Sequence to fold (235 residues):
Amino acid sequence: MILADFAKALGQVGDPRFRRVMWWGVGLTLALLVAAYAGVLQLATMADPGSVSLPVIGEVTWIGDLLTWGSAAMMLFFSVFLMIPVASAITSMFLDDVAQAVEDRHYPHLPPLGRQSLWDAFRDTVNFLGVLIGANLLAILAYVILPFAAPLIFYGLNGFLLGREYFTVAAMRREGRAGADAMRKANLPQIWMAGVLMALPLTVPLMNLFIPILGAATFTHLYHRLAGTALDPRG
Fold:
């Protein structure tokens, strides 16, 4: 059923409104990653000693090039992990638009809703990012103690957090915070699994650029399926 939700989200990529939001999300994701790389590159430039004289070898002038290429390789590696918090930020910014596009096509019988305020979206984003970053920092200890289980811990933890965030934001539009929390607790295994299935492609370079928006659409379908509102035959 979760894969069916994702298939519906993927099938709406051709919708002009959905596609516009997707490209905005991809552009913002790239901008955030480029900004992060610019910061790392600046630190590498500041650490460049210019040239160093070594015994036997003599003067070495390629340390700056090594730091530059090393920073690029490091950012490519860390972008795998950066995409998890980036995805959470993009969800809060674009979920209203994505969910509305999904509902207009698949659930047109539902009454229209007002938009979430920018302040509420910002507050929720900051709160979740704090939880996400804190949990992953604490998980580093588990990675060190259980290195062979590190992938399971990473995907299990971030799948739980992403599923919790995406479903709560999607459900809050129609259920309110208390109703969304109740639905999430009642359907935790399915929501957790959906979060894990989202976390997996988020660690695949290039593919992960499109996952935040597709994830928002998928969790919108998941919410409506669990809420029993998919009455339209096209849903």
Notes: The mean pLDDT is 78. The helical segments are 2-11, 16-47, 63-106, 118-145, 150-186, 188-202, 211-227. The longest strand covers residues 52-54. The radius of gyration is 21 Å.
